[in-house]
Amino acid sequence: MNKNIIQALIARLIVATFYVLYFIFVNAELVFSALVGVLACLVPEVYQGMKLSKSVPELEPSKWLRLAYQAMFGKWLMSIIILAIAFSSSVEWNYFILFSGYFLVNVSGLLAPILNKGK
């Protein structure tokens, strides 16, 4: 399972990198919104992935599920805190770019099983 978690994180990192690079070359004014959007999703996902990959495989299913829920709660809490700090600043955000980056990074974890199919 650790391999699947790492592959999902790598897929998210690749999508986040290309998303930010796109705005660096196309419209530099939107880079900060894009960067905060992808980081608001990527940092908590890395936290959740690290927490779940450190779990011992011999854990009972109920204990593993409890750990998974704790990691998910921590992930959402981190996302909320990052976005709250960003929105409380005096920076003018392009909300479409910010939340598009957040959404793309979040959904890109679904690419890992598709890319790993047959391996």
How would you explain this protein's 3D organization?
- With 119 residues, the protein is mainly alpha-helical.
- The protein has one domain.
- It has five helices and no strands.
- The protein has helices at residues 2-26, 31-53, 61-88, 95-108, 111-115.
- The radius of gyration is 16 Å and the shape is flat.
- The protein starts with a helix and ends with a helix.
Task: Write the topology of this structure.
Layout (H helix, E strand, L loop, with lengths): L1 H25 L4 H23 L7 H28 L6 H14 L2 H5 L4
Overview in brief:
The protein has helices at residues 2-26, 31-53, 61-88, 95-108, 111-115. By secondary structure, it is mostly helical.
**Backbone structural class:** mainly alpha
Task: Give the H and E element order.
Answer: HHHHH
State the helix count. Answer: 5
Low-confidence stretches: none
What would the average pLDDT be, to the nearest integer? 87
Give structural attributes.
mainly alpha; single chain; 119 residues
